[in-house]
Amino acid sequence: MADLGDLQSLTSSITAVTSPFRNYLNDLHAKYQSLNDGAVADYIPELALAKPEWFGICVVTAEGQVFEVGNCDQLFTIQSISKAFVFGLALEDHGRDYVNSKVSVEPTGEAFNAIVLDEVTNRPYNPMVNAGAIATADLIKGHSSTERLKRVLAMFQRYTGREHDINVPVFLSEKATGFRNRAMAYLMLNFGMISDRIDETLDLYFQQCSIMVNARDLAMLSATLANGGVNPVTQERAIDEHHVQDVISVMLTCGMYDASGEWCYRVGMPAKSGVGGGITAVVPGQLGIGTFSPPLDAKGNSYRGIKVCEDLAKDFGLHVFNAAKPERDINEWIAGGNDLNDW
Ligand code: GLN
User: Does the C-beta of 181 come closer than 6 Å to ligand 1?
Assistant: First the structure.
């Protein structure tokens, strides 16, 4: 079993071209590197510093093979991708019924920062939009704000196999300018949907969005879900197996904001995106994909990341509802790849 501390260096040292899938990924990267559509998020100055040409793709199989190309070491803030995983932690803390009494699981069809609650129950629509994510952050247990943050960071470490830091300037900027999120929190407090520790909960939400990850971490996050909640490299359990299905389902219906329907139709992988330029996508039982490319489309999803997932789904028949024989058999293409467990 790979030691946690060694994971970064182990995965960084993989350079050999040993399987056709690695060549495929190289070609895919080259194909979309020149795509210049989209714009880097600039609602806070720190995010605008991202270089539009940064582009990394990483695929981790449920057996722990790692394939990567491009900027897979470049750190960026996880942003909304955190929402899916914090939802998982809330489920572990309180169980499905209680969490569902505070946050629904319906897609909104509206932008991620829409100020909208269910008119009958006053619940935010789902944990993947900001209102629902703030309500979810409120549910994270801990005796102090430090303990709650530590629990969130420890959870991410279980998924990725390495320690994560907060990007403090991003956190402080989000906190200083997040009036809309603050307004949503107060609206939910008004309806009794969240507790009155508003500042603490908003801090936790802004901090979870400011956690620094790279494309490899994003692939590990989804590979862990694909593998039933156990990191396929470290073999550490990150989330109770009973909640994996809950998290993945909401990723499929709500993970790509108001583009979730289109995404499900075209790509068909439960996924979550963030305005930092990351996408994490799950092929249950098979693999996890992490992409990083900062330019976003109008709905806030990474332009190149969408293209990469679309191609992977089409070329290898990875759409969750695919019933046709795929053009390429993923198992044949990954054969001969590096298996970290053998290192
Ligand atoms: N921190 C961002 C916000 O709350 C996260 C948004 C996102 O990635 N879509 O607005």
Answer: yes
